[in-house]
Design a protein that fits this description.
Elements: H1 6-15, H2 20-26, H3 35-51, H4 53-56, H5 66-71, H6 75-89, H7 103-112, H8 118-131, E1 147-150, H9 157-162, E2 168-173, H10 176-188, E3 194-198, H11 201-207, E4 211-216, H12 238-248, E5 249-256, H13 262-268, E6 273-281, E7 284-292, E8 304-309, E9 312-317, E10 338-342, H14 344-349, H15 352-359, E11 362-363, E12 371-373, E13 382-391, H16 395-402, E14 407-413, H17 419-426, E15 429-440, E16 446-453
Parallel strand pairs: 1-2, 1-4, 2-3, 4-5, 6-8, 14-15
Antiparallel strand pairs: 5-7, 6-7, 8-9, 10-12, 10-13, 11-12, 13-16, 15-16
Length: 454
């Protein structure tokens, strides 16, 4: 790893709020200045300021080239993985442990707790009492005798958050420059328990002693650099390592592409998936996380599914909702006053019958994935709208619905036209306070719903 000299460090500090492309063209070549390195650091810090604010606030961090910063986990998703690890291991913890710099994460957890199920609430309280989350750097550290290994270290963002809950934390990575970077950055973050190993993760797994927790984020690009999604096409192939992972840890957390069908992924692991976490932020699915563990019963049990979108969180037993894609089983209310659109994690999970049952709403129609109710629903995991009018696609209904409106936000669900096609047909500009949904109701009627955001 190239260490910044004084000239380069001074340049970064002076220009880190400026446009990197303009700097590359206009910056004066000063003796001793490593301009490419300086530009990488400025670009990296600018991304981290939004994506990894805790890292950005640490002056000693050295950032990798741009593509690694774009692909690394965000602070939110990394903290969530740390929360999973704490919760999984909390029942076995006998000594309190402190997780440093977790004030923000703890606040997020507190906001979302009312939406957790009773079982998840109980486990989370156990985790909190066992780990005593604190944001005070001066707190005494009484660390649980626990160990973890990250077999696919990369830039080290996930590792840096996971490691905080363990007395021993090992980062494994094949690429020497990433190992050097991780060694420097973990020291800058004060993670004294971190151990950096440069080597192949699979070989390390075969030779290592058992640990409490293993984390893997398989590379989703093939040997030609093309993006892959299937588990068996990623490196390493976690399906081939399943039995070894189960033998070497109490539980293993695997990060997979959010493009995957989680039901198929669970089936591929043949009864060893204990939990499924569908993680979204900003209403965009970012990660599919599977928790692997030894079977407790002879018959494989269905996993618990956790749907997370920022502070919106629900979880459920997938065995109780095997008909998650059931459509239109609940009759529509006579008064259709409110429309609800589930967040991205719910849409990915496909647990639409759970949404009907838990929030007292009814699905609009076949594959529409929109819900209506007569009364407002508090804490719905998604967006809510007040329905102002409903009509068909005939000219009379369209004229009544639009009522002189010149612009609207348009979305379609299970509708014969795309949003751009519908916008063109209605001759509407984009934006404004009106939200127009094109969808199919129960009975296969194509309708437009004029709404305003709650």
């Amino acid at each position: 790893m190239t260490i910044m000299n004084d000239e380069t460090r001074e340049f970064v500090a002076m220009h880190r709020n400026e446009d990197v492309r303009e700097l590359a063209l206009k910056a004066k070549r000063v003796e001793g200045l490593d301009l490419p390195l300086a530009l990488d650091q400025i670009a990296g810090w600018q991304i981290a300021r939004k994506k990894l604010p805790q890292w950005a606030s640490c002056e000693g961090i050295v950032y990798p080239p741009h593509i690694s910063m774009e692909q690394c986990s965000s602070q939110f998703t990394a903290q969530y993985k740390s929360e999973i690890a704490q919760t999984l291991l909390a029942p076995a913890a006998t000594v309190r442990a402190r997780v440093s710099d977790s004030g923000e994460s703890d606040n997020q957890t507190t906001k979302s707790e009312p939406q957790l199920s009773d079982s998840a609430e109980s486990v989370m309280q156990t985790a909190k009492s066992a780990f005593q989350l604190s944001d005070s750097p001066e707190s005494d550290t009484l660390v649980a005798r626990s160990s973890m290994v990250d077999l696919t270290g990369g830039f080290g963002v996930d590792f840096s958050y996971l490691a905080r809950g363990f007395s021993q934390a090992t980062y494994v990575e094949r690429q020497r420059h990433l190992c050097d970077l991780a060694e420097h950055n973990m020291a800058a973050l004060g993670l004294d328990q971190a151990r950096i190993v440069c080597g192949d993760g699979v070989e390390y797994l075969r030779q290592m002693d058992p640990v409490d927790f293993i984390y893997l984020d398989p590379a989703r690009r093939d040997e030609h650099g093309s993006r892959t999604y299937a588990i068996e096409d990623c490196t390493p192939n976690v399906l081939e390592l399943r039995d070894l992972l189960l033998a070497k840890s109490q539980c293993t957390l695997v990060k997979l592409s959010p493009m995957l069908d989680w039901r198929k992924a669970v089936a591929d692991f043949d009864g060893t998936v204990r939990e499924v976490h569908i993680v979204a932020t900003g209403n965009e699915c970012k990660e599919l996380l599977l928790v692997l563990g030894q079977q407790v019963h002879e018959e494989p049990s269905a996993p618990r599914v956790f749907c997370v979108n920022d502070n919106q969180r629900i979880d459920y037993d997938s065995a109780a909702y095997t008909q998650g894609l059931r459509i239109g089983g609940k009759p529509l209310p006579e008064a259709k006053n409110y429309l609800y659109e589930p967040n991205a994690s719910i849409m990915k999970a496909g647990c639409f019958d759970l949404v009907e049952e838990r929030f007292g709403v009814a699905q609009v129609g076949p594959s529409s994935h929109l819900f209506v109710s007569a009364t407002p629903v508090a804490d719905f995991p998604g967006r809510g709208f007040a329905i102002e009018a409903i009509g068909g696609m005939n000219k009379k209904d369209i004229k009544r619905l639009l009522n002189g409106t010149k612009q609207a936000n348009i979305a379609v669900r299970n509708f014969p036209l795309t949003a751009p096609q519908l916008r063109k047909k209605l001759k509407l500009a984009d934006g404004g306070p009106v939200y127009l949904f094109g969808t199919t109701m129960q009975g296969c009627d194509h309708v437009l719903l004029r709404t305003s955001k709650i």
